[in-house]
Amino acid sequence: MLALVRSIPDSYAQALAAVPADPPIDVEDARAQHAAYVAALAGLGIEVITLDADEAHPDCVFVEDTAVVAGDVAVITRPGAPSRQGEVAAVAAALAGRLELHRMPAPATLDGGDCLRLGTTIYVGRSARTNDLGVSFLRQMLSGHGITVVSVPLPPEVLHLKCVCARLDDDRVLVAEGALPEDTFGETALVRIPADEAYAANVLAVGGAVLCADGFPRTQETLESAGFRTIPLLTTEARKADGALTCMSILL
Ligand code: GLY
Fold first, then answer.
1. What confidence tier does 153 reach under pLDDT thresholds 50, 70, 90?
2. Stated pTM of the model
3. Which terminal residue of the chain has fewer beta carbons within 10 Å of its beta carbon, N or C?
């Protein structure tokens, strides 16, 4: 398995955030936390490819939003935040030799943080960042590759679908209590965590291991009870920019 990640620019202190960070983002702490994340991926046997930071794009570390990978195909997205649309070029260039690429045209928008894959189904949050044309384009590009795309309505306060849930394996989704209708993922089993730990619903599961946000004891206990080996990581500086663990990599 490969993971594409991207270094943190000095401009990260100006990354998008629904609420201004208080205390402000500490870029050096962010880099240290990112380095620990990369080390955790490498420790799971994943080969990590690191793209250079881009000072013109403060949010560029959140690579997940720029591409949706399914097997040997990648849809290069058109992120919903205009300030982020220029992030895709470097990611597309890095994926070009490895995968068949399809570039999303305007006015479609879609953020990869809205996409949760379970087996051959990708659930796509219909957020303020992802529009119906984005969902349709993804469906059109992936249907010939055996992928079904299901649109999931989201309340306006949820930035991305994976802000409130994450894949544990093809049969289980970790979800913050009360965040989504019970039947959002059909018959898939839901592993619930308390609403007051909702931030920790964004985990990165790789086989039997789960990268999870440090400081959320009930979520960690729930994951361990579900049979996972947890790897808690500091995410304070990602969180200040509305980012979390899945946001910082593209797995292929
Ligand atoms: N700061 C991540 C985002 O808002 O897209």
1. very high
2. 0.98
3. N
